[in-house]
Amino acid sequence: MKSSPSAISLQPEKSPANVSTKPWNVVRSDKNPIITVKNVKPSRPGWKVEYVMNAGCHRVGAEVFLLLRVAETPLPDKDPNIFLAPYFSEKHGEVLFRRLEKNDPLNDFRDSRFVLRYDDKGKEVLRVLTSISHLRLARSRDGINFTVEEKPALYPSNKYEEFGIEDPRITYIADDGFYYINYSACASLGVTTNLARTKDWKTYERLGCIFTPDNKDVCIFPRKINGKYYAMCRPASAEYRRREIWISESPDLISWGNHKLLMEVNTNDWDGGRIGCSAVPFETDKGWVEIYHAADTTHRYCLGVAILDRDNPTKVIAKGKAPLMEPETDYEKYGFFGNVIFNCGVLCEDGIIKIYYGAADTCMGYAEVPLQEVLDFVLKG
After folding, report:
1. 79: Cβ contacts below 8 Å, ≥ 6 apart
2. Cis peptide before 156, with omega less than 30 degrees from 0?
3. From CA 99, how far away is CA 115, in angstroms rounded?
4. What pTM was computed for the model?
5. Cβ atoms within 10 Å of 138's Cβ, excluding its own
6. Which residues contact 18 (CB under 8 A, 6 or more apart)?
7. In terms of Cα–Cα distance, which of 264, 280, 174 is closest to 218?
8. Are residues 309 and 293 in contact, defined by beta-carbon separation less than 8 angstroms?
9. Residues 115, 88, 72, CA angle at the centre, nearest 5°?
10. How close are the terminal C-alpha atoms of the chain, in Å?
11. Measured distance CA(1)–CA(356) in Å, rounded
12. How many CB atoms lie within 10 A of CB 153?
């Protein structure tokens, strides 16, 4: 897709005085959100699509492919006091439901994302998600108007995917011609990162778990560097509550080791809570460009930019001091989980970074920013 103003109408980020005060000119599509629940059919009768977001992306021939995270819930039970919490049962090989009473004081429904159950002493004994997610393929020739396939590309299928599969990243490895898809697998066992691959986008081979709990936000580099594959990841420390970006290496994309801390949180207001990888890094003559996400202590999610050394990606050359994008529009501020911009994939074409992002954990948005403006600010700022 060529980035032509005559082909796609985009809206620049603006200050209250209608004058851009940022070092780059991010423009959002005036068709945003480009994908909503209205564009996605439920995967089965008796279900409802709750939100669609956080798509991995890649160009395949003349088309842009998005691999969407689609969250669904069953239609309400006949008893209005019953909440149906879906989960995949490996034992039964299908999705089953936990029936939770809404008026039971031991059940906590305050967070829209999950339900907690406590025993009579106040100890948490159950944590389940309110929806179950799968991955769905969407295609577009212009990068804006997408057709979403009716059937899931990948659906929960084992105990590691009990509560769903989320937030895919797509890495094409030219050496073997496969598109590798890593995704977060959610279960009562914890959050793992699983890997699958495809060549034709019709059949998918699951390769198993590549990072143990709790590790997510994995981005695999698109080529070997000095004979090794690299991946960024985001382990979570239960003891010290640290959530930062690490980098690992592998000989085969399956076995990962030599883990190193790559980027820590800052203490300023926009990235002082947690940071994690977002898009698969892309290569420039200045280094690997990583669009990452960061949240402050109020869980407001923005996008940031870092540049890694081309020959040694464990070395951070520069990191932007200001967010690349932050929640500004209504569809980014309000939704299933508001004040969130979360990205799982970008394209860099014709000197333009093309960002496909989840907005407020509800829908998909699209924005563009000139690559050179971003490089200049990060490297010189």
Report:
1. none
2. no
3. 11
4. 0.93
5. 25
6. none
7. 280
8. no
9. 65
10. 30
11. 14
12. 22
Closest residue by Cα to residue 378 from 308, 323, 294, 319:
319
Q: Which residues contact 183 (CB under 8 A, 6 or more apart)?
A: 135, 154, 165, 166, 167, 168, 169, 193, 194, 196
Please say whether the beta carbons of 146 and 140 come within 8 A.
Answer: yes
- Contacts from 263-266 at CB under 8 Å and sequence distance 24+? 263/292, 263/306, 263/316, 263/319, 265/294
Condensed to tens digits (0 to 9), the pLDDT of residues 204-250 reads: 999 999 999 999 999 999 999 999 999 999 999 989 889 999 999 99
DSSP state of 75: P
375 CA to centre of own chain: 23
Give yes or no for a contact between 345 and 169, defined as CB atoms under 8 angstroms apart: yes
Domains of the chain: 10-380 (2.115.10.20)
Q: What is the DSSP letter of 374?
A: H
User: Residues 137-189: pLDDT tens digits?
Assistant: 999 999 999 999 999 999 999 999 999 999 999 999 999 999 999 999 999 99
DSSP string, 10-52: EEE---TTSS--SSS--EEETT-SSB-GGG---SSTTEEEEEE
CA 277 to chain centre: 9
Helix (H, G, I), strand (E, B) or coil at 168: strand
The residue among 370, 365, 270 whose CA lies nearest residue 29 is 365
Locate 32 and state its tokens. 């945003």
